[in-house]
Design a protein that fits this description.
The protein is α/β, with parallel strands linked by helices. The protein contains 16 helices and 14 strands. Helices cover 46% and strands 18% of the residues. The structure holds pyridoxal-5'-phosphate.
């Protein structure tokens, strides 16, 4: 199914729209990745750390009470929330740090928005004793003081970025700039399936452990493949990690859930596949939020992890080819999903993952109207401990509004 003209493209999406000065770094990384992909020694070492340090394989959990509540769905949760550091991001950062070590690099750099990717990167760098610098928009440094402290604890330096809107996209620009000058000693760990080739393809492969494990686990539990796979989409790494091993199974529907934020019509959202246009940012062509002058429109979502104006080029391809579909869930519904999973299953999800949970209500209704029942595999990308304080305030506002309305 992977009809890719050359290995850095997904249909017309992806590519390497970077300054010439970055090309040697990308070529070097590409060659190194091609080598380790096939190298059993690398995979053995990675597998060992994934098992003993990250806690893999993560369980596939049958959510009986949620299934009963929704009626028409038989729901399984892939528990990435149980990974060390509380989300799927460590699957990628650990693998890339191992790769960097192999390349003889002594320093790691990364961009971060709310700090989740920064923490996952600092964690993996600490594990191998590598120097680690994390670029973070000044705005985010102020808002996410706790994650800044975590990164400091883990031995990383946090560099505040004061250009542009002082948020994630500006931090990404600065990290790319640093890399151009430092590539001899430094590896850049991108946090999702975005950026110039080979990042989207490589990070997809590293996150595909999610789908590979889940495939085996659901076959064991149900004796067959699921009818659908559902995951939230920010940059798209947990979603593509779940989807990839099912792409050739035509009977398995693939559904990504973006952030509709305050509503698509308000313009304050993160739904680049549902409401964006094709463009180029951070070295790759993808669906993107920008205005008529070509300026990036900042994304909005209640969940920081879905707050990116672009999306992985492979998702752009899966959407345009019709293999996957993408739905958008707003802030309020995501909060309801957050509450529902906590109440019914005793699992507090990350607000990002709560978008996928909330979408199950929509899917259940669709399936009921068709007079069917479906078995659904959902990626629970992370745990919600990081979000409880924010959710407390938001849920109070919501219940006040509902009492008035
Ligand atoms: C970062 C994050 C996401 C969004 O990133 P993707 O690359 O789209 O997976 C989703 N869930 C959690 C818990 C996150 O931390």
């Amino acid at each position: 199914m992977e009809k890719i003209a050359d290995k850095g493209r997904f249909g017309t999406f992806g590519g390497r729209y970077v300054p010439e000065t970055l090309m040697p770094a990308l070529e070097e990384l590409d060659a190194a990745y091609e080598e380790v992909r096939e190298d059993p020694v690398f995979h053995e070492e990675l597998g060992e750390f994934l098992e003993k340090y990250v806690g893999r394989p993560t369980p596939l959990y049958h959510a009986a009470r949620l299934s009963e509540d929704l009626g028409s769905l038989n729901i399984y949760l892939k528990r990435e929330d149980l990974c060390h550091t509380g989300a799927h991001k460590i699957n990628n950062t650990l693998a890339q740090v191992l790769l960097a070590k192999r390349l003889g690099k002594t320093r790691i750099i990364a961009e971060t928005g709310a700090g989740q990717h920064g923490v996952a990167t600092a964690t993996a760098a600490a594990l191998f004793g590598l120097e680690c610098d994390v670029y973070m928009g000044e705005e985010d440094v102020d808002r996410q003081a706790l994650n800044v402290f975590r990164m400091h604890l883990l031995g990383a330096r946090v560099i505040p970025v004061t250009s542009g809107s002082c948020t994630l996209k500006d931090a990404t620009n600065e990290t790319l700039r640093d890399w151009t000058a430092s590539v001899r000693t430094t590896h850049y760990i991108i946090g999702s399936v975005v950026g110039p080739n080979p990042f989207p393809r490589m990070i997809r492969d590293f996150q595909s452990i999610i789908g590979r494990e889940a495939r085996g686990q659901i076959l064991e539990a149900e004796g067959r493949l699921p009818d659908a796979c559902v995951a939230c989409v920010g940059g798209g790494s947990n979603a593509i990690g779940l989807f990839h091993p099912f792409v050739d199974d035509a009977g398995v529907e693939l559904i990504g859930v973006e952030a509709a934020g305050r509503g698509i019509e308000t313009g304050e959202h993160g739904a680049s596949l549902n409401a964006g246009r094709v463009g180029v940012l951070h070295g790759c062509q993808m669906h993107l939020l920008y205005d008529d002058d070509g300026q990036i429109i900042p994304a909005h979502s209640v969940s920081a992890g879905l707050d990116y104006p672009g999306v992985g080029p492979e998702h752009s391809y899966l959407k345009d080819s019709g293999r996957a579909r993408y739905y958008a869930i707003g802030d309020t519904d995501a909060l309801r999903g957050f509450k529902r999973l906590s109440l019914l299953e005793g699992i507090i999800p990350a607000l990002e993952s709560a978008h996928a949970i909330a979408f199950l209500g929509v899917l259940a209704e669709e399936v009921r109207q068709a007079g069917e029942t479906k078995t659904v595999l959902v990626c629970l990308s992370g745990r919600g401990d990081k979000d409880v304080q924010q959710a407390e305030g938001l849920l109070r506002e919501l219940s006040d509004e509902e009492a008035e309305g």
